[in-house]
């Protein structure tokens, strides 16, 4: 027997006699013989913890944890740091270490829970710098979580980082828009009006960035709601025209331009778009009428070149049309492009068979009204007239109560789910902006939502995450952290393919915790399952046999072991255990030591 083995045997003898200090000396000396033996160091750390020498125990546990993590054994490292956490529950550094380990192994929900605990600690301590670092880590894990983004933006603002906060709020607005969550977006716009009264319209700035994407139709629905609340929102009208232009809906584009002109008759943008839409539809007469009506307005505003482009498009569409060519000559002259004006005048003279010099640039046709187009919306007017008023804030969208910065404080310590309902397709009618997301603001950060497919508490897991939870449960089991093991096995049991195996291991955990009757009841109940495979049946009978042995029911234990051997003679150490007669009268025959159990290959 080597010196290390002798020291380990001596340590066991001292422990049986209750001489913990002598056992500790043996473990320490064994470590000097083989410093890399993590099994010895673990025994030393556990004995130090039982002796309430927590600081010394922590030092040994951290040595083990760092070694495991550096070699990629994240699950076992998590189990080790959980033991440290039991000794130092208030140490937030341990929570951050656990968060990092869970993140590296892909256990996103567990990582978020640990980061959330760290964030709440830093928030309580008013340490905004560390709070921001923690929230950044959470965003790294779940970048599409609006609750995390909201908290991040608020903390930036509290920390005096206005530009960063504005960027974060805008990013959140983009996310809500992508999710078609108009109620939350409206309430966020209201919040932004309160926080940044001197900044440009938040909602319009968010919507503007989505005009060239697949969300343009949804953007138009939101803008129509804004305009119905306040028809004098110029930016909203401008964006609505751009949205319809982006979607290619020419009919609604013309209608929006026509209404835009009603409220802002001096603006050139809607007239330009109306004319171009008519040209695209090859409505020559309609385009010419609209051009005639607004020609003087464009010239007065030194924008003759804009109309000139429209006339040239018409000329390409309908060549040799004298009316169009006269318009080209007239606008070219007004724009200061004399050579081009002369060129068109020459063409007109050629067509009319008269001298170029005799061709005069005609005045515009008599004014005609802008065409009326059928539309699916009409901004409501008071008494049928446009009332001049101040541009209102986005508060008109959401309505409701005043906000206070303290509304964003979390008063709950529990993790639970908030579901944000999303419409898959934008409604054609005006959306009703509800207050649900922001009205439950005290709950906003009391939950952690993750992307589809990641581990979620009480919600189910996919195969990869179930395997990680299962492996983590085994690591906890081997480290003797049975409550954590049970929690992990419960998570893994959401996968139907491993549900029975996880339930069997939960029964084993109950046995190791000393809850023998409960373990027996659970394992016995599982034996009635119709889905029990031959392999699971052997696992179940084995764990139940160990439970019976600890209860002194040796004959029952022996019978189960015989049943296992009949199916699989090579199963674990069943052959060895069967050599022990249940009639020997020694109730400790099946009561294995911790050292013996550590050698079992739990699968």
Describe what this molecule looks like in 3D.
It is a single chain. The chain is mainly alpha-helical. 64% of the residues lie in helices and 0% in strands. It is built from 30 helices and no strands. It has helices spanning 3-16, 20-33, 38-50, 54-70, 74-87, 92-105, 108-124, 128-141, 146-158, 162-178, 182-195, 202-208, 216-229, 234-247, 250-263, 269-280, 284-300, 304-317, 322-334, 338-352, 395-398, 436-439, 463-479, 482-492, 499-512, 516-526, 534-551, 554-567, 574-578, 594-598. Helix 7 runs antiparallel to helix 8. The two termini are 31 Å apart. Residues 354-461 and 585-603 have low confidence and may be disordered.
List the helices and strands and how they pair.
Layout: H1 3-16, H2 20-33, H3 38-50, H4 54-70, H5 74-87, H6 92-105, H7 108-124, H8 128-141, H9 146-158, H10 162-178, H11 182-195, H12 202-208, H13 216-229, H14 234-247, H15 250-263, H16 269-280, H17 284-300, H18 304-317, H19 322-334, H20 338-352, H21 395-398, H22 436-439, H23 463-479, H24 482-492, H25 499-512, H26 516-526, H27 534-551, H28 554-567, H29 574-578, H30 594-598
Helix pairs in contact: 1-2, 2-3, 3-4, 4-5, 5-6, 5-23, 6-7, 7-8, 8-9, 9-10, 10-11, 10-12, 13-14, 14-15, 15-16, 16-17, 16-18, 17-18, 18-19, 19-20, 23-24, 24-25, 25-26, 25-27, 26-27, 27-28
Give a short synopsis of this structure.
This protein has helices at 3-16, 20-33, 38-50, 54-70, 74-87, 92-105, 108-124, 128-141, 146-158, 162-178, 182-195, 202-208, 216-229, 234-247, 250-263, 269-280, 284-300, 304-317, 322-334, 338-352, 395-398, 436-439, 463-479, 482-492, 499-512, 516-526, 534-551, 554-567, 574-578, 594-598. It is mostly helical and 603 residues long.
């Amino acid at each position: 027997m080597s010196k290390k083995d002798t020291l380990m045997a001596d340590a066991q003898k001292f422990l049986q006699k209750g001489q913990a200090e002598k056992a500790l000396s043996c473990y320490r000396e064994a470590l000097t013989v083989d410093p890399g033996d993590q099994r010895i160091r673990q025994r030393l750390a556990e004995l130090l913890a039982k002796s309430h020498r927590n600081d010394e125990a922590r030092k040994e546990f951290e040595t083990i944890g760092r070694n495991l993590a550096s070699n990629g054994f994240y699950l076992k490292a998590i189990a080790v740091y959980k033991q440290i956490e039991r000794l130092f529950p208030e140490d937030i550094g341990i929570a951050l270490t656990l968060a990092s380990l869970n993140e590296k192994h892909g256990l996103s929900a567990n990582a978020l829970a640990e980061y959330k605990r760290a964030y709440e600690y830093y928030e309580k301590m008013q340490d905004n710098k560390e709070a921001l670092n923690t929230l950044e880590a959470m965003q790294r894990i779940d970048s599409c979580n609006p609750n995390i983004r909201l908290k991040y933006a608020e903390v930036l603002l509290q920390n005096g980082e206005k530009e960063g906060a504005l960027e974060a709020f805008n990013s959140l607005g983009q996310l809500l828009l992508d999710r078609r969550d108009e109620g939350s977006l409206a309430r966020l716009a209201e919040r932004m009006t309160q926080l940044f009264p001197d900044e440009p319209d938040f909602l319009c700035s968010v919507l503007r960035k989505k005009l060239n994407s697949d969300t343009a139709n949804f953007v138009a629905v939101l803008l129509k709601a804004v305009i119905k609340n306040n028809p004098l929102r110029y930016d909203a009208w401008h964006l609505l025209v751009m949205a319809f232009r982006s979607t290619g809906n020419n009919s609604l584009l013309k209608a929006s331009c026509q209404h835009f002109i009603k409220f802002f008759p001096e603006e050139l943008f809607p007239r330009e778009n109306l004319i171009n839409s008519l040209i695209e539809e090859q409505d020559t007469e309609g385009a010419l009428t609209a051009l005639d009506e607004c020609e003087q307005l464009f010239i007065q505003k030194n924008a003759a070149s804009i109309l000139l482009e429209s006339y040239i498009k018409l000329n390409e569409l309908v060549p040799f049309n004298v009316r169009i060519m006269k318009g080209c000559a007239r606008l070219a002259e007004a724009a200061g492009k004399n050579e081009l004006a002369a060129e068109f005048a020459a063409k007109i003279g050629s067509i009319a068979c008269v001298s170029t010099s005799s061709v005069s640039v005609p005045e515009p046709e008599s004014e005609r009204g802008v065409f009326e187009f059928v539309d699916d919306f009409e901004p409501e007017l008071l008494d049928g007239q446009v009332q001049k008023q101040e541009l209102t804030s986005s508060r008109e969208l959401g309505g409701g109560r005043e906000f206070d910065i303290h509304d964003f404080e979390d008063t709950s310590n529990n993790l639970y789910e908030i579901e944000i309902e999303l419409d898959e397709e934008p409604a054609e009618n005006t959306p009703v902006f509800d207050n649900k997301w922001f009205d439950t603001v005290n709950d906003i950060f009391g939950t952690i939502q993750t992307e589809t497919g990641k581990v979620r508490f009480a919600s189910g897991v996919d195969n990869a995450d179930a395997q990680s939870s299962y492996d983590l449960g085994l690591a906890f089991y081997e480290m003797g952290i049975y409550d954590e093991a049970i929690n992990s096995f419960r998570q893994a049991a959401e996968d139907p393919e491993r549900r029975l195996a996880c339930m069997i291991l939960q029964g084993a955990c109950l046995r190791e915790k000393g809850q023998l009757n409960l373990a027996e009841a659970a394992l016995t109940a599982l034996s009635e399952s119709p889905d029990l495979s031959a392999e699971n049946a052997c696992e179940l009978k084995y764990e139940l046999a160990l439970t019976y042995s600890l209860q002194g029911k040796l004959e029952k234990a022996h019978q189960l072991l015989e049943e296992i051997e009949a199916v699989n003679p090579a199963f674990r150490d069943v052959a060895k255990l069967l050599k022990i007669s249940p009639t020997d009268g020694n109730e400790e025959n099946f009561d294995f030591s911790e050292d013996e159990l550590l050698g079992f290959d739990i699968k």
